[in-house]
Amino acid sequence: MIKATHSLRVRYAETDPMKYVYYGNYATYLEVARVELLRHIGISYDEIEKRGIWLPVSEYKIKYIKPAFYDEELKIEVSIKQRPGVRIVFDYEIYNEAQEKITQASTVLFFLDSQKKKIIHCPDWIMEYMKVYFP
């Protein structure tokens, strides 16, 4: 399993009139955490794209347990629990400043050859970064 944690502070523009985080902003929070997890293992999202691989999201599931609020610092734990194939699954848990789990989510992305527009298996060069986690 690969696991990383990313923190962010809720900005005013991300909230609704009640100062709750607007639900649509969670997708962005998850994307930021996902990119940081890849950086954590040594690979940048930019490098993946430069090498001709796109990672479109095919599934997005989220459960809102409690709201997040303006100016609150959130901790997003993101993990990859299984070896990628043609898909890669990211699981997330978001915690508030009181260390309460407020959100649980998952995203499924697939590997797409950007030139051929065809779904492919996770490239070997990406698996090199993950081999210590999935021997």
Automatic annotation (TrEMBL):
Matches recorded under InterPro entries: 4-hydroxybenzoyl-CoA_TE, HotDog_dom_sf, YbgC/YbaW
SUPFAM superfamilies, A to Z: Thioesterase/thiol ester dehydrase-isomerase (SSF54637)
EC nos: 3.1.2.-
Enzyme class, spelled out: hydrolase
Gene3D superfamilies: Hotdog Thioesterase
One Pfam family from the record: 4HBT_2
Molecular function GO terms recorded: fatty acyl-CoA hydrolase activity
Entry keyword set: Hydrolase
Family classification: Belongs to the 4-hydroxybenzoyl-CoA thioesterase family.
Stated name of the protein: YbgC/FadM family acyl-CoA thioesterase
Organism, as annotated: Elizabethkingia argenteiflava
